[in-house]
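dumping these here so i dont lose them again. two proteins, back to back, each one seq then structure tokens. dont judge the mess
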Amino acid sequence: MKKRIGGRYSVRNVEKRKKSKRDVISYEDVPLEEYNDERTEISKDAVKRILIIAGVIVVLGLVVFAIANKDSFTPDRVSHWVKYDVLGSNDEGFPAKIIGSTVNDANFVCDGGITYVSDTSFESISYSGNEVGYNQHGFSKPVLRTAKDNVLIYNLGGNGYVTGTKEKLNAVKDTDNYVITADINAKGYYCVITQADGYLSKIHVYNNNCEKIYAYSFSDYYINSVAINPDGTGCVACGVTGDNGSLLGIAYVLDFNQEKPVSTHNIDENVIYNVKYLNSNNVCMIGSKSSYTLDIRAGALKQIDYSNMQLTAYDIDVDTSSFALSLSRSGDGRTCSIEYVNSAGEVLNVNDTNCAIESMCLYKNRVAVLDSDKCYLFDTEGNRIGKADAGNGSKAVRLENVDEAYILGINEIRKIAEFK
């Protein structure tokens, strides 16, 4: 028999160990390549079944946990948890200084980021405070309109407007007559209302390549607010005129494929401040004495009367096809009631508060209201969720989600990360 050189083992010794049962196995007794592991092996099918059963148990546990805590697992709350608890963000970009001297509250927008226009500049910043886009402008009275990433700024009472995106604006376009109002949609289609020679006002409509596709002149009413529909195929234009000392209002429904208005709706003794499409068929109109909803296909106009209360603020949430009105019960701007209205003109709920509401923002089932240097958060059922300090000189509030808000101050934008 051949012996292993330099070792303590021979083939004979190995054969002897194979024939005998060993109570103890030692690596020092056999070479590693000759060691037979005597552990019982589990079949692959058994391992697979065990893993499947364990996975099912884990999934069922997570489902039960999620159902029991469903209110805590909204996308906004999960985002907030990841951002602040997991990533440890402290929003170092806020407060963010405003470029320019002043910003009107209507020129302060939150929609996928913060966009504002001051008396000198346009700026878009992310929710973390980083600059996304910046342009200077030469408009004396700039007015901002946004739709998702698209931007339109016009010079109220002056000649000119500019379109573009939140990242960059295009070159300014001059108008032959003074601009009265304008609007843009998410596809980049836009319309501009101007004064017109021989008429009270005129609408000019452009596609997303800035090509003119429609025009119409208004001879009887002075158009002061307009909204272009989501498809860019029509619009609603609201105007006013005088009649023997009385003020008369009107709403025109225009189809860009037809020469004349599709329909008109009289709005007696009321000035429409803002008109907006809640969806492709329903429009809301915020007025001085009443607000309205208009079902375009049915031609049905529904009035929401203020009952002699004073409108102090409002906001429109296209995502939920609803809007909210702040109406002062005392007539001096204090003790405001919040009315929530759907696209059919139905008042869903009335929330009586003791706040003097100067600005409000509706987001899903939450509404934030600004009362001097305090900001309050309510749900649409009327329950107060929390309160936060807004800071001195607060002018407007905008919600990012159901938990966080941004405040427009005199010279800065502040963030409320939590309501308590």
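---- next one ----
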Amino acid sequence: MMEGKTLFNPNQDHAQELQRTILRARQERKNILIEVGADWCVWCHRLEHFILSNPELHLLRSQNYIHMRLFSGEGGSLPDVFDKLPPFDGIPHFFVYDFQGNLLHSQHTEPFEVGESYDYNKVWEFLAAWGVADVIH
């Protein structure tokens, strides 16, 4: 776990954050990457550490997405504002939306795991495949 590092804020105003995320995604014509997780989740911290430790992955995520973290309580409970998310098993979990708010993809990160870390190529392929916004003219 990343010592002292808080990734997910259980007290965050998720409705306000979602509105800011959507607005920014529309302005920048980027897809939205919602990462569901919690600070008690060791795999959530491993994933963030893995992405930050690989500059190409970090750049791919930051250049191609508006990234939003969503706190999941014990048992996968979510704030009411996210009641439209499809069901999912386990965290961390990614949801990709276009900048109009349409769900493009739901992805559990377990298939990306290898040993106590993640597979570079699988994470890169996911971020590359879903990061292109479908710009409407």
